[in-house]
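Narrative of accomplishments. A recurring question from our advisory board has been how the design workflow behaves on a single, concrete structure rather than in aggregate. To address it, we present the structure tokens for one chain from the evaluation set, followed by the sequence designed for it. No filtering or post-editing was applied between the two.
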């Protein structure tokens, strides 16, 4: 008799992974008899559209593909309840899986034409008996997916704008509702998260951390808006990725933002923040240039707007917009030497009073989840500086010194929460806000 299994997905720094598999048992057993080697876990990652096993690249720059299938490593095993919570005696076994950064066998997204959610088709086979007070349990096979959950997307809603010329899909999170004014954080996805699966725009990487209790506390509760385009933000109308500096989505995105604000009247229009990574970093710059003074602050990450496409007048137009850039020196996808660095330097030269830049040598896992073959923290590709930004680990400025507000060290998100158009650079009010969020 083949049996059903359940999965738990966690949105990690490297996107959504199935981190737990929950198996129902025929009888209750003690946790002390459960070990990591009782089951083999084989998985085939399948395209949800046609059911075929994925042919994927080893990494972002690789040309060679391979079939995405193999065995997952169990790191912990224990009896649990149906939700996967540890129990001393239980009718379920929960298996915790390693999150592996190269072959990503239990990752729920893969890059096809865009990053899309895929089906991880597991077959869990018992290879070691489970002792009980009566007959031991043996021969269990689980190969029928029955349910899955991803707690971090709870509270997120998918919708679509009503802009007739170009309606855009979007996901959003609402804080605890009250009449008190709340800020709005806008996240613009990278080139890989375009398409038509809106959940990818905020769960394809760790954007959902912006709705976490920790981050929401920094802002005193904030709306989070994650628009999605069918191609990429750097599509200037050609349907292709371009370096022209133009985007066909500018008016449609502004219409979406305006509509979202009008539908949620308790959004504080003086505290609308915009940011995003790569293509989304490009669009962040495009929006603050095209609508100077509209946004309270911007946080472009590995942004891809060529500096030579920004005029001197545009630098003057945005110099009073608080901006915090994030990039890595070894980014081979978007060269900071022709994008963020010269733009940052021009802003400073123009007298920008509130511009910062976290510049990393490389991007290394700081969660302890992802390791290399020698057990050391895994080094991600240099383009992935959104990993640091979304975890709120940007704390240093371009010269390596801590960013401070009124003499106190702040992270990027703490700094962001302090920005408001109606207080400008009023030191006393900023101090009050800083104390409030800490």
């Amino acid at each position: 008799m083949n049996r059903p299994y359940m999965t738990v997905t966690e949105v990690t720094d490297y996107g959504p992974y199935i981190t737990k598999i929950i198996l129902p048992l025929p009888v209750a057993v003690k946790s002390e008899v459960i070990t990591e080697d009782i089951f083999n876990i084989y998985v085939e990652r399948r395209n949800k559209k046609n059911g075929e096993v994925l042919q994927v690249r080893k990494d972002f720059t690789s040309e060679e593909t391979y079939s995405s299938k193999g065995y997952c490593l169990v790191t912990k095993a224990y009896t649990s309840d149906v939700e996967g919570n540890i129990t001393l005696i239980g009718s379920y076994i929960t298996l915790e899986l390693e999150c592996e950064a190269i072959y990503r066998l239990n990752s729920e997204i893969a890059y096809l034409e865009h990053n899309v959610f895929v089906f991880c088709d597991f077959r869990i086979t018992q290879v070691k008996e489970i002792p009980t007070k009566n007959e031991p349990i043996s021969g269990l096979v689980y190969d029928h997916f029955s349910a899955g959950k991803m707690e971090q997307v709870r509270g997120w809603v998918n919708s679509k704008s009503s802009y007739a010329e170009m309606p855009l899909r979007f996901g959003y999170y609402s804080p605890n509702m009250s009449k008190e004014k709340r800020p709005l954080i806008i996240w613009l996805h990278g080139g890989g998260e375009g398409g038509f699966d809106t959940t990818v725009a905020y769960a394809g990487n760790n954007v959902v951390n912006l709705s976490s209790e920790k981050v929401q506390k920094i802002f005193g509760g904030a709306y989070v808006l994650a628009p999605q385009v069918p191609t990429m933000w750097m599509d200037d109308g050609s349907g292709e990725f371009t370096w022209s500096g133009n985007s066909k989505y500018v008016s449609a995105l502004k219409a979406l933002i305006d509509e979202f604000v009008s539908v949620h009247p308790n959004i504080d229009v003086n505290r609308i923040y915009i940011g995003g990574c790569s293509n989304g970093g490009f669009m962040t710059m495009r929006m603050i240039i095209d609508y100077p003074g509209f946004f309270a602050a911007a946080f472009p990450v590995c942004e891809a707007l060529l500096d030579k496409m920004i005029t001197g007048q545009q630098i003057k137009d945005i110099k009073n917009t608080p901006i915090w850039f994030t990039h890595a020196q070894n980014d081979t996808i978007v060269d900071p030497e022709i994008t963020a660095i010269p733009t940052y330097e021009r802003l400073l030269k123009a007298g920008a009073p509130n511009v910062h830049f976290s510049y990393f040598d490389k991007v290394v896992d700081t969660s302890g989840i992802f390791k290399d073959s020698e057990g050391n923290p895994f080094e991600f590709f240099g383009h992935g500086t959104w990993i640091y930004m979304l975890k709120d680990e940007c704390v240093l400025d371009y010269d390596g010194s801590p960013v401070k507000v009124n003499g106190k060290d702040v992270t990027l998100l703490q700094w962001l929460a302090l920005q408001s158009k109606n207080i400008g650079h009023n030191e006393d009010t900023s101090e009050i806000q800083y104390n409030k969020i800490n």
